[in-house]
Amino acid sequence: MELVPIMRLSVDVRQPITAGPTPHGEIRVLPFSDGTFETITADGSAPVRGTIADGGTDWQRIRADGTLEIRAHYLLQTDDGDAVEVISEGVRAASPEVLERLAAGDDVDPSEYYFRTHVRFATGSARFAHLNDLLAVSVGERHARGVHLTVYAVP
């Protein structure tokens, strides 16, 4: 099975709001402050572009080993008016040294950590109705003020 790249996203986040430590790890919320996306087309057609609507968030749980459990929920808005809900859940894991560099805001090569999510979409748009039945996965990169994701369809 070969994954098919379908989209790139860039999301800027605000400072985390933390609920502090719990028996299950530290819980925090990162509100999205801005973001863009662009579809990837295999047939050479023009990509669809748009923004990430206000109100998106990433709920996170930091486990004792430093692994981050991710639960993101946001809305894509195409430049021509379509809207697509995104729910993305996964993990970001790395060695303690790499986690320290990420926390300091350093640019760390994505090959040094594991950042993956499974992605589901929902939309009322006829043009993007195929996304309603699609399961996708993403490969993420963490940067000082946000993340970059490449989303792949699971055929």
Structural class: mainly beta
- What oligomeric state is this? single chain
How large a portion of the residues is in β-strands, by DSSP E?
Answer: over 45%
- Helix count? 1
Describe this structure in a few short sentences.
The chain has 155 residues and is mostly beta strands. 5% of the residues lie in helices and 55% in strands.
Question: What does the model show?
Answer:
The chain is mainly beta. The protein has one domain: Porin, CATH 2.40.160.20. 5% of the residues lie in helices and 55% in strands. The protein has one helix spanning 96-103, and strands at residues 4-13, 17-20, 26-39, 49-52, 57-62, 68-78, 83-93, 114-122, 135-143, 146-153. Strands 1, 2, 3, 4, 5, 6, 7, 8, 9 and 10 form a 10-stranded antiparallel beta sheet that branches. The longest helix is centred in the middle third of the chain and has 8 residues, at 96-103. The mean pLDDT is 95.
Give the helices and strands, then pairings.
Layout: E1 4-13, E2 17-20, E3 26-39, E4 49-52, E5 57-62, E6 68-78, E7 83-93, H1 96-103, E8 114-122, E9 135-143, E10 146-153
Antiparallel strand pairs: 1-3, 1-10, 2-3, 3-4, 3-5, 4-6, 5-6, 6-7, 7-8, 8-9, 9-10
List keywords for this structure.
Porin, 10 strands, ten-stranded antiparallel beta sheet, single chain, mainly beta
